[in-house]
Amino acid sequence: MRMLVTAWAWPSHLYAMVPLAWAMRAAGHDVLVACQPSLMAVAERTGLPCARVGSDVDSVDMVRGYALPTRRFGTPEAAASANGGAPRALRMFQANAEAMVDDLVRLAREWRPGVIVHDPTAWAASIAAAVAGVPAVRHLYGADLVHRARRFLPELLAPMAERHGLDDLEPLGAATVDPFPAGVQVEVDYRPTPIRYVPYNGPGQAPRLGPSNRPRVCVTWGTTMARVDSRRFLAGEVVRALASPEVEVVAAVTAAQRTLLGPVPEGVRVVEGAPLHALLPSCDLLVAHGGAGTSLTGLAAGLPQLLVPQLPDHQAHANRLVRAGAADLLPPDEADPAELRERALRLLHDERARQAAARLRQEIADRPAPAAVVPWLERVAAG
């Protein structure tokens, strides 16, 4: 069988699907990753065959326009001028779908996959699958926030669907694969297929930190905020606030973020380019921005989390973890050094938060591994 995997050009959305894609490849199936030009280098590093489709969209600028308003950073100009209609993030997904759909339809017709697996915000996949007459399977990367906004989808997808002769498109596809623990997932009106979250954070050298006689706190800020607005990359401020004899602080950054991190106090360890899942099992607390991939990787390691969200989806994910008792949320306007230090130390000694994080880790571990989901995907393609 052939499986076409597609995501618009945002690395973390593709990362979530890589373990299942490799499970399909290991089971003997052909797998092809289709993405926009700016994601090709990332896709190639997964080791899977890739195909370039469509053109790039300035998604970074669109994300910049819907960052959460704060006293500290102000209200983004685009967000201030928005007036009703679909949420701004959905307009970004629509723009990327428009940029991808015609090429993706051609690729699906030429390559003839048995199933298309896609990031839930890569809407071009639903249209390509319908035109090719094959099932589209959404692979979630976190909470199903698109399902909550599904009333907007028919209008947003209508021009593309009509262009390709479709008058009855199911935007949520034939099935959904869900790695997010039920304890933090939003309520939906369908039955997803659970899959174990196997972290894939890209290639890199595993850090060798060794044991510590103090609680170890990992500070990381993902890859989004540094691209959107360097002022919102708060990892350096957090590191300097937390550094003390009471804890060992490890800053996990990309090589490009090292300059943004700024000066770090003596004793802080800076790890560049390491896969996050190789670092977190040796830690006791995660302090981060609330991105779905980072938070899920933290949950897979069983860590309580202190989250400082600055985008709507980051806040939505942070809220789910807080409700489950595994995290604390600190708005950026309140994230001064004293408050950061107090909240982090409180979480480190919060037995209920540790137990909640451990329960979520166990729920992730109890889900079927990607290899066990392959037979189900074969049945979806056949049915």
TrEMBL record:
Question: Which residue numbers delimit the Erythromycin biosynthesis protein CIII-like N-terminal domain?
Answer: 22-222
Q: Which UniProt keywords apply?
A: Glycosyltransferase, Signal, Transferase
- Tell me the InterPro entries matching this sequence: EryCIII-like_C, EryCIII-like_N, Glycosyltransferase_28, UDP_glucos_trans
The keyword Transmembrane helix appears for this protein = no
- The protein's organism comes out as Nonomuraea cavernae
* Signal peptide segment: 1-23
Q: Which residues form a coiled coil?
A: none
Please state which protein family the record places this protein in: Belongs to the glycosyltransferase 28 family.
- Record's superkingdom? Bacteria
One of this protein's Pfam families, by short name? EryCIII-like_C
Domain Erythromycin biosynthesis protein CIII-like C-terminal: from-to ranges: 238-378
Q: Does the keyword Transferase apply?
A: yes
- Its protein name is Glycosyl transferase
Biological process (GO) annotations held by this record are: antibiotic biosynthetic process
Q: Name one GO molecular function term.
A: hexosyltransferase activity
